[in-house]
Amino acid sequence: MSEILIENDGGVRTITLNRPDRLNALTGSIMQPLADACADAASDSSVGCVVVTGAGRGFCAGGDLKEGGSDKSVLPPNEESGSRTEQGFVRLRGFMETARLLHEMPKPTIAMVNGPVAGAGIGIAGACDLRFAGRSASFLTAFDRIGAGGDFGSTWFWTKILGTGVARELFFLGEKLSADEAFAKGIYTRLYDDDALQGEVMKAAHRLADGPRMGYRYMKTNLNNAEDWAFEAALDAEALNMGLATSATALIWREKKKSENPDG
What is the residue extent of each domain of the chain? Predict the structure, then answer.
């Protein structure tokens, strides 16, 4: 059974974590294919919007602690690969490309949070531009429970999304939030009844995939710049990207109209 499922529906690419018996908890066998699937979605010009979700009754429960110690890829210390700590860093950082790609790819990304999300899963959800959740969803940082600092960009994303005060509350106190509580804090973008969630997500995803893709590309660039850039530099980039986006969109629409009416 494949642990990552890929589905294309028009310009929408859905990536599903497929370990429903473990609430889609992450192991080495799923994290590399997940990163690869995100890289492929980022580079595929036919894809206009990416949806990430989990199979079964959960989004992602974080790292699978039951299998965390069984990885055979970390070797005894050696001159080529370094210490176990160095090897672990290289391995985890490679897996964490998933978060970078979802955040930086030049197309909108949506986390369809269909149940509990915790640990590394909150990094994956936070990396997406939008988070649509069902009422059975919950939110838990969980890192305090294993004496960990956070991974998959979780501390960075949630500080940016919620502000440092709320992010510190979530990480240090480690309290589990219901879907309604998470929505009230601004963690989830939209909240739906469980049976309506997929339909609402796909409606939004198709709207984005069928919309002005170059406009969204530069819009996302501007929004990402705003997270770290000085105001004047962001203004310069907005001015440049405005021209790039509108000229590209006009050209695409002109070519589309010509193809639809070749004699017109």
Answer: 4-209, 213-260
Where would I find the H helices in 63-193?
A: 84-95, 97-104, 120-127, 154-162, 164-168, 179-185
Contact 73, 21 (CB under 8 A): no
pTM greater than 0.70: yes
- CATH architecture entry for 4-209: Alpha-Beta Complex (3.90)
| Two tokens, residue 228 | 């770290």
Q: What is the largest CA-CA distance in the chain?
A: 70
| 30: its two tokens | 């799923």
246 C-beta neighbours (distance < 10 Å), count: 14
8 Å CB contact between 54 and 90: no
Residues, the chain, total?
264
- Judge contact between 219 and 245, C-beta under 8 A: yes
Q: What digits encode the pLDDT tens for the residues 213-263? A: 999 999 999 999 999 999 999 999 999 999 999 998 888 777 777 777 776
| Contact in structure between 143 and 149 (CB atoms under 8 Å) | yes
Amino acid of residue 235: L
Phi, psi of 242 (to 5 degrees): -60, -45
Parallel, antiparallel or unpaired: strands 130-134 and 109-113: parallel
